[in-house]
Amino acid sequence: MFLKFLIALVLWSAIGSSNASVRSEYEVKAAFLYNFTRFITWSEPVADAEDLKICVFGRDPFGDVLQQLDGRMSQGKALTLAYPQTLIDAENCQVLFVGSAKSRDLPSITRYAEERRMLTISEIPEFVDEGGIIGYVKEGNVIRFEINLQAAQRAGLQINSRLLELALRVIR
Amino acid sequence: MSNRWRWQYWPLKAKLVFLTLSISTLGILLVCTSLIVVENRTYEEQLESELMVLSGILAEQSAAALLFEDSQQLATIISSLRKIETIEQVCVYNTAGDVMAELNSATSATCPNLATPPEVGFVGDYYRLLEPVTLDGDTVGQLYLMSRLEVLREHIRTFILMAFTIGLTIQVALVWVAFRLQRLVSEPISELSSAAEQIAVNHDYSIRVPVYGKDELGRLGNAFNEMIGTIEHQNRKILASRDELERTVADRTSELSLANRELEAFSFSVSHDLRQPLRAIEGFGQALEEDCRGQLNDTGLDYLSRIRAATVRMGGLIDGLLVLSRVSRQAMEIQKHDLSAILEEIVEELHATSDDRPTEVTIQPGIEVVGDGRMLRIAFQNLLANAWKYSSKADIRKIDVSACESHGSITVAIRDNGVGFDMKYVDKLFVAFNRLHTPAEFSGTGLGLATVDRVVRRHFGEVYAESSVDNGACFYVKFPASVQK
Fold first, then answer.
1. Residue B326: half-sphere exposure toward Cβ, Cα within 13 Å
2. Pairwise CB contact (< 8 Å): A166 & B136
3. Three-state DSSP class for residue B205
4. Which of A91, B37, B97, B163 is positioned for an S-S bond with B114, CB 3.0–4.6 A?
């Protein structure tokens, strides 16, 4: 039994290394996160900041993957990562990723984020119906996303229509 | 190949039209070709820029979908190109080179593998384009577009057809214009040429050509007319002076012939009249010798015999003069004679009237000469008698007559083995009364060779001699070809 598992593990790793294009769910989600920032325009005064600060609130599901985004450029700004423990600490974030653990506090978090003109992203189911702006959804094996345009407008964010076209559902 | 079709035989008209049309055809072809090339280039550029714009729009539209790996959205985006019929194939690749979405027409194959980049631009019947899809300067994928060129080809075909139709129409118009315009140049020249030919054939110097304009052709026409005018004027002068000259010649000839006739009549009558007193002298001399022989001493008899000998010589002289004057004025009856036969007769006469010295005469048989029979006989009688006479001191008299013909003329040579003469006196030989020997050596009047010369001259021939002292003489009589026909 243990031997079989070992063989399967070896085979799997062989396949994984030979086919680099097969990416894990969180690699895709991290890439999406980076791509979202490229299609969103922040309004004053957040737009004036030199960096684009991505804050992961709550438990970090990405692991090492998100570290690849650190320092990458998006719309001429460098991305920085932050892991605030409280909402107060998330004061200066432009992008707020809400971890699954925070689903109970969603209304307060989204309200806080809207006031601070943040882009809220989460993989919590029905996140956009709860007032979040972009929510990941899984359709079979494919990662897609939903957009709450009303929430985005309240937060003073302009979302590129190309991005809207790609969304699985847009709440207008 | 017929001469008609060779360039040098072409009429000027045809040459002018041909040249004009060659140049215009060349020009039209060049213009048409360059128009077609330019049109093709312009159309290609237009097509290229249209497709560039199209692919730019597509790239811009598909950037987000590429980033989010949304094949469905990509397929929707590129499916809008289905409406453009000439689009053969559209492929969208992600950064790894995998096909994310494709649009194929019924005939085309699958999307090309980007590992070996496809040829882009105008290749064969297709225009291919590979454009990177960028977002904020990052390449997020590639867009491959392949378009059929049938519209371009059709357009260029139509354009070529149009260009050549127009070119042909222009050429037809140019043929008409060239036919009209070539007259401006060729007509004066052909008129000039036909006038020149007419003058050359008919010698009609009153012909003038019409003069068109003041250009080179006009000047040529003027110069031609002036030239013909000058020729006409000079011709008239030449004709007038020729007529005058002919009149003068006729006058002189008649004067000359009158003088000649008078002179001949004079010499004839002188010779004839001289005979009578000579006969009297001779007759009474003979009578004196016969009747009064006894009354004269030897001295008287000697004188008398000298007188008689002198009268005989004078008689010979007068006969010679008469013969000379006769051969000078006698009318000639020209016909063909057998000279060999005449010569044989003369030799027989000479045999009969002279000494019995051994003689060898060879006469080439069959010599035929055209001329007056009596005159020829006189001339050759003199020549043979001379040969006979001057070879009388040789042991055996040898006379040889031969003839040689060349180019129609006949030269008769009379050769003897007599005493000959010194060549420095050859000029005096044929002059009357000039003798190279004294009467004591050889008797003679000094008129024989002058008579020969006169006869031969009247036959338009010439007589000449070759000799050296004591080595015989050879006389040549040459009758020219003009008489010997």
1. 14
2. no
3. coil
4. B97
Q: Which residue has the tokens 């007599």?
A: B418
- Of the partner residues B69, B73, B136, the one whose CB lies closest to the CB of residue A165: B73
Q: Which residues of B touch A166 (CB under 8 A)?
A: 64-65, 68, 70, 73
> What gap in Å lies between CA B136 and CA A77, rounded to an integer?
11
E-state strands within chain A? 40-41, 51-57, 73-74, 77-82, 95-98, 119-122, 134-139, 142-148, 158-159, 169-171
Q: What is the dihedral of CA B314, B315, B321, B324, to 10 degrees?
A: -140
Q: What is the pLDDT along chain A (172 residues), one digit of tens a residue?
A: 454 544 444 444 444 443 445 678 888 899 899 999 989 988 876 667 788 889 998 888 888 888 888 888 888 888 999 999 888 888 888 899 998 888 888 888 988 888 888 899 999 988 999 889 999 999 888 889 999 999 999 988 999 988 998 999 999 8
Q: Which of A21, A35, A73 sits opposite B67 (nearest CB)?
A: A35
- Other CB atoms within a 10 A radius of the CB of residue B275 amount to 16
Angle among Cα A116, A122, A126 to the nearest 5 degrees reads 110
Question: Does the distance separating the beta carbons of A166 and B65 come in below 8 Å?
Answer: yes
The ipTM estimated for the assembled molecules is 0.79
Nearest-by-CA chain A residue for B67:
A35
Tell which residue, B454, A130, B100, B118, has the closest CA to residue A122: A130
Measured between CB atoms, which of B61, B68, B98 is closest to A35? B68
Q: Check A166 against B135: CB less than 8 A apart.
A: no
Count of other CB atoms within 10 angstroms of residue B236: 11
- Is residue B401 classed as helix, strand or coil in its secondary structure? strand
Q: Which residues fall within 8 angstroms of residue B484, CB to CB, at 6 or more apart? A: B369, B370, B408, B409, B410
